[in-house]
């Protein structure tokens, strides 16, 4: 594996291997010395053209715990804010001799484009409305643990997982649909018609507009953030109405089967798509997802940079 | 070897056996059984994967990482590293680094089933099952019932397509080239 641009790039074997190694990496978090020498002498640049807390910091911690030199560049406070183009920024960074570029950009396909300009390996940390493959990997990692399987990828066979909310603008939803289907689970997209992208039929998923009908029969609910910054308006009448139709309210939490996992990629709009009762429920895996972020990204960095050439 | 370990340690107290995957782990288990038979004490056994600590990590395709599971705290324990074959000594160096990231043992000792010589680092085993003089272009294969279905030690001539034997500078893969 040279780059990680899409969940579709990963074979089932790759996914199994990444999730299994993430289990080992998760143990490193409990050690007194959180350091492995695997990426000593390698340089990883986090190039973030959009704001991020957890993705950027977990890539940073992951790289550092593997002994790589990690540099963070964000659009704000860099030459990007002076008008430098993506290509010039990337070429400048690459000219400094970096081994890998973790890139987040508002334009779908930007990381793919970057691979054509430089030799460094590229990891997609979220591109526009396209994909966020490491988020999908960490969601699968968290769910696999919740379903009680520490190894193997068959924990997902027959599992039904609702992905609820703003599917149109969600790169997390796209990557999760690809990965969960690959693992044998059945993703069900739940959203108002205005928040479903055109061509959703070709995703090969069940689609519903009725959350109450779906949630009683699923093994996990993945709530998506209502991305107000991407919305020019008109997707739903009022936030209140959205919550009534598609929010994970206290009543809906009560309607879930016992043990149904509650996931959210964060940051949460509490009271809009998810209630405080749901976010803080015993079966909420939201903080497990954050913890898994470091382990999964360590595993991804090791798989991409841990050796030379194709394995 | 179990008796040697007990003699050096003056009993089984404070001992931890750390097998280096793959074949060091079942060997460590076997030693624990032998020690229990002799002393009536069950010595904890762990597995210490050294993949991430290898000095040739960068020159190879990405290697699969094994399990590291240590039985509790190793601070102030006497850790006996267990491996199948001692060759260049690079695996042991990596294991010492890996151990250093897990804690600070009171002492670290090395037990190997076969010492085949050809050291590239100043490493010596404390407990050796069998010294096996070999030439550098030979391979020593240890097979265990637990991992290979049979117990045997085989010396083979390296073929040209066998990179392990042709370049003993690499740390081992439990295939006798270590």
UniProtKB/TrEMBL annotation, chain A:
One of its GO terms (cellular component) is cytosol. Pfam families: OTCace (PF00185), OTCace_N (PF02729). SUPFAM superfamilies: Aspartate/ornithine carbamoyltransferase. Pathway: Pyrimidine metabolism; UMP biosynthesis via de novo pathway; (S)-dihydroorotate from bicarbonate: step 2/3. Keywords: Pyrimidine biosynthesis, Transferase. GO terms for biological process: 'de novo' pyrimidine nucleobase biosynthetic process; 'de novo' UMP biosynthetic process; amino acid metabolic process. One of its GO terms (molecular function) is amino acid binding. Its EC number is 2.1.3.2. Gene3D superfamilies: Aspartate/ornithine carbamoyltransferase. It catalyses: carbamoyl phosphate + L-aspartate = N-carbamoyl-L-aspartate + phosphate + H(+). Residues 2-144 form the Aspartate/ornithine carbamoyltransferase carbamoyl-P binding domain. Residues 158-304 form the Aspartate/ornithine carbamoyltransferase Asp/Orn-binding domain. L-aspartate binds at residues 82, 171, 225. Carbamoyl phosphate binds at residues 54-55, 104, 132, 135, 266-267. It is an enzyme of class 2 (transferase). NCBIfam families: asp_carb_tr, PRK00856.1. Belongs to the aspartate/ornithine carbamoyltransferase superfamily. ATCase family. Catalyzes the condensation of carbamoyl phosphate and aspartate to form carbamoyl aspartate and inorganic phosphate, the committed step in the de novo pyrimidine nucleotide biosynthesis pathway. Heterododecamer (2C3:3R2) of six catalytic PyrB chains organized as two trimers (C3), and six regulatory PyrI chains organized as three dimers (R2). This is Aspartate carbamoyltransferase. The lineage of its organism: Bacteria, Bacillati, Actinomycetota, Actinomycetes, Propionibacteriales.
């Amino acid at each position: 594996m040279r780059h990680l641009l899409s969940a579709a790039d990963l074979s089932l074997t790759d996914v199994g291997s990444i999730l299994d190694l993430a289990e080992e990496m998760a143990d490193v978090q409990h050690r007194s010395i959180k350091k492995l020498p695997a990426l000593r002498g390698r340089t990883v640049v986090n190039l973030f053209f959009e704001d991020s807390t957890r993705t950027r910091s977990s890539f940073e911690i992951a790289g550092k715990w593997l002994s790589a030199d990690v540099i963070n560049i964000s659009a704000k406070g860099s030459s990007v804010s002076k008008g430098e183009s993506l290509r010039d920024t990337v070429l400048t960074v690459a000219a400094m001799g970096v081994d890998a570029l973790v890139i987040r950009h508002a334009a779908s396909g930007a990381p793919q484009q970057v691979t054509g300009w430089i030799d460094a390996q590229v990891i997609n940390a979220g591109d526009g409305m396209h994909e966020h493959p490491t988020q999908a990997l960490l969601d699968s990692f968290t769910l696999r643990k919740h379903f009680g399987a520490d190894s193997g990828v068959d924990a997902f066979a027959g599992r039904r997982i609702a992905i609820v909310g703003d599917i149109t603008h969600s790169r997390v939803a796209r990557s999760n649909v690809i990965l969960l289907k690959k693992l044998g689970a059945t993703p069900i997209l739940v959203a108002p018609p205005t928040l479903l992208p055109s061509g959703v039929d070709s995703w090969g998923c069940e689609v519903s507009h009725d959350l109450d009908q779906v949630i009683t029969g699923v093994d996990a609910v993945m709530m998506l953030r209502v991305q107000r910054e991407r919305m020019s308006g008109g997707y739903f009448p009022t936030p209140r109405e959205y919550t009534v139709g598609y929010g994970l309210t206290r009543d809906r939490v009560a309607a879930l089967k016992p043990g149904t996992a509650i996931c959210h990629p964060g940051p949460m709009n509490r009271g809009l798509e998810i209630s405080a009762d749901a976010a803080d429920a015993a079966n909420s895996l939201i903080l497990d997802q954050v913890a898994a972020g470091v382990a999964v990204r360590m595993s991804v960095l090791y798989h991409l940079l841990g050796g030379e050439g194709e394995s | 070897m179990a008796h040697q370990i007990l003699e050096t340690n003056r009993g089984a107290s404070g001992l931890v056996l750390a097998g280096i995957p793959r074949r060091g782990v079942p060997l460590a288990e076997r030693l624990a059984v032998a020690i229990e038979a002799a002393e009536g004490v069950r010595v904890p056994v762990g597995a210490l994967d050294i993949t991430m600590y290898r000095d040739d990590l960068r020159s190879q395709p990405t290697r699969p990482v094994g399990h590291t599971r240590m039985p509790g705290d190793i601070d102030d324990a006497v850790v006996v590293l267990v491996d199948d074959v001692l060759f260049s000594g690079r695996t042991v160096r990596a294991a010492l680094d890996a151990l250093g990231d897990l804690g600070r043992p009171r002492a670290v000792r090395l037990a190997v089933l076969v010492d085949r010589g050809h050291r590239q680092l100043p490493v010596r085993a404390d407990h050796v099952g069998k010294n096996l003089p070999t030439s550098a272009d030979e391979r020593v294969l240890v097979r265990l019932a637990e991992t290979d279905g049979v117990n045997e030690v085989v010396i083979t001539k390296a073929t040209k397509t066998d990179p392990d034997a042709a370049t003993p500078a690499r740390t081992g893969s439990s295939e006798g080239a270590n």
